[in-house]
Amino acid sequence: MTISQDISHTRLGRLFGPGGPVFQPLGGYRDGMELTRLAPQTGTAFLLRAGQRLTVVDPTGEQVSDFFAVMDDDRDEWFSSGRTIDYANSTAVTTGSVLYSNRSRRMATVVEDTCGHHDILLTPCSQQTFDLLYPEFEGAYHPSCFENLATNMAAFGVDPDRISTTLNIFMNVWNERNGELHIDPPTSRGGDRFVLQAEADLVVGLTACSAEKSNNGVCKPIDYRIDD
């Protein structure tokens, strides 16, 4: 796996906030929407009812958000990246894409996407991810998307072993013909959004990704909103 970084940000002003360096975007959102902010390297969980829309916004650019969901009526039915890939015959997720469960039920549909680059292949970062792929941390504790998902979704009765491969919103992953994966800086810019409409009642976990190398070296916030 190849991870690329380019830490020059000429169009953003640098600030420092909870969880580490944060970039403040120039200007505001396209429609002045009110959003809830996830601080860097944190997560949340909530109910998303059928018909509701979840808007995920990258407020500063180049920041990944891990999404996972289970059915509210059965915690053993969860988002399946494999079935989603099978039925679309594609690893691309964008406007019009449908997310399927491990039982082939429709969970959500992407209704808007202003970025166009997202990942559906990689699992959420975990402590083991940092132990194995970040040797410079020498095994020290590190916040992770898996921990944030498991901790927050536990309040809804979701067992950690149910948390599988996530939809990694704004993550820029591509592969060589020989199968080697590359993780490049996200292509999202400040204000880019990704909108899902629930097709069933869901328990959703959402993070501001904790892996520095997936976010061009700096972990930043993620904003979201739920609309009826």
Order of helices and strands: EEEEEEEEHEEHHEEEEEE
- Could you tell me the number of beta strands? 16
Radius of gyration: 16 Å
Q: What structural class do helix, strand and pairing data support?
A: mainly beta
Overall average residue pLDDT = 88
Sheet having the most strands:
6 strands, antiparallel
Q: Spans of 5+ residues with little confidence (pLDDT < 50)?
A: 1-28
Describe this structure in words.
There is one protein chain. It is built from 3 helices and 16 strands. The protein has 228 residues and is mostly beta strands. The N and C termini lie far apart (40 Å). 43% of the residues are buried. Mean pLDDT is 88; it is low at 1-28.
Keywords:
228 residues, mainly beta, 5-stranded antiparallel beta sheet
